[in-house]
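Need Peptide/nickel transport system ATP-binding protein's 3D structure for a figure. Predict it.
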Amino acid sequence: MTEPLLSVRRLAKDYVSRGAKLAVLRDISFDIGKGEVVGLVGESGSGKTTIGRSVLRLVEPTAGSVRFDGTEITGLRAGALRRMRPRMQYIFQDPFASLSPRMTIGEILTEGLKIQRIGHRLDRLDRARAALEQVDLPAEAINRYAHEFSGGQRQRIGIARALALGPEFLVADEPVSALDVSIQAQVINLLRGLQQRLGLTMLFISHDLAVVEYVCDRVIVLYLGRIMEIAAGADLYARPSHPYTRALLSAIPSPDPDARRDRQILKGDIPSPANPPSGCVFRTRCPHALDACAATVPELREVVPGQFKACIRDDLD
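Structure prediction for Peptide/nickel transport system ATP-binding protein:
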């Protein structure tokens, strides 16, 4: 891996709901190298979006360290964090809710530039037009409103809003899940092309493992707020090490109707973060769980070079 642009260590996040503490994230540690695309996958409720928002401090972590390009950002005061914002941008999941209906596209794209006091009005509009062109939308779109665009076009506008500030790092939070299937591939190819052309570093959050395989260099597998496995994309898809990863991959549809896949169906639902299982959080659904799994929280350890898993069993490799 190249030099880390983002380093996360022992990140934790708690919420309180109706008097109960929800341990949404626990002991999250990973690095993302400069120019690398890292996928973050897992079922709904696993904490993927919370990680994405925590590393940018859109929500405040309960504990842990997040370093961006060598700077510890969890302790930054408001002014210093605001000055860091142009380098780290977020692409939201819902292209309909993330764009104000009362603002023109030009106002949406220049709002961040204005807050950061970058350029004058005409300079900002020029940057907005350039950002629109980067996402294959006409420059004259700056005078229109969000409701005049389709879902796919709105997501392109959301991407342009992030690009207008000239970021180095993007968190793409389920960027195509709200779009029609026919449009998803276009937006994914756009993001992939922008990442390669601009040398962007990216945390790509998705529940679609087929998309992650296409886009990402490495993959982090998350379950109930804990990391189960980290590996290079090619290694993870060819030789998944953790039972949870194997179950997720077995559910990917095959384009070959004659191909046989050993489908592994997980029993039950993901537990509540208000009452997580003791020991390994996956043990209540794991077909290979031992009695010891209830007493031991497995450490994330390297099982082969570059591949890490949180499981006490070695006989499953």
